[in-house]
# Entry
Amino acid sequence: MPDFNKLLLPGDYQKGLVNIIVEIPKGSTMKIEWDNQTGTYRLDRVEPAEFAEPFNYGFIPQTLSGDNKELDVLLITERPVSTGVWLPTKIVGLLKFEDNGQQDDKVVVVPVDDRESGHRVNDLTDLGETWQHKVEHYFNHYKDFMKSGSTRVIGWDDAAAAKSVIADAIAHYHQAHS
# Structure
């Protein structure tokens, strides 16, 4: 298995574009995580069916977020994308989030070439309030069986805020690897 952090760059985030790697396909109950120490995917846990991922979940290479893991992304597509697939994406917003008191923000992205949606998603408003409420509910409760109340959605922000979080995560990655 390749080390994505050595093979891929984060992308041109200042222009709103990032490369991502998918860990968990949309609809999966398998909490799959990239382990950068071994260069493999590992199954962290199996969630109940009601906590299947409502989106594809992954990360941006060559980044480190507040939890000292790669910066998380929520990839919005109609269908699941397989674990290990990498693709260029467009930044549409940011989910501000805390996990066990640690900042653990999620960048919201769509594929650069999204012909299925007709390239209709350009910012969070294009996803709608109902979608945002579903995501908030998911993140506020997906760890209830492990440790209820350990996660908290703080709010949403735009692509400019996401770019700032990405810049910080890239800087953190380079500091840790210099």
In short: Strands lie at 17-24, 30-35, 40-46, 56-60, 71-75, 86-99, 102-103, 106-111, 151-157.
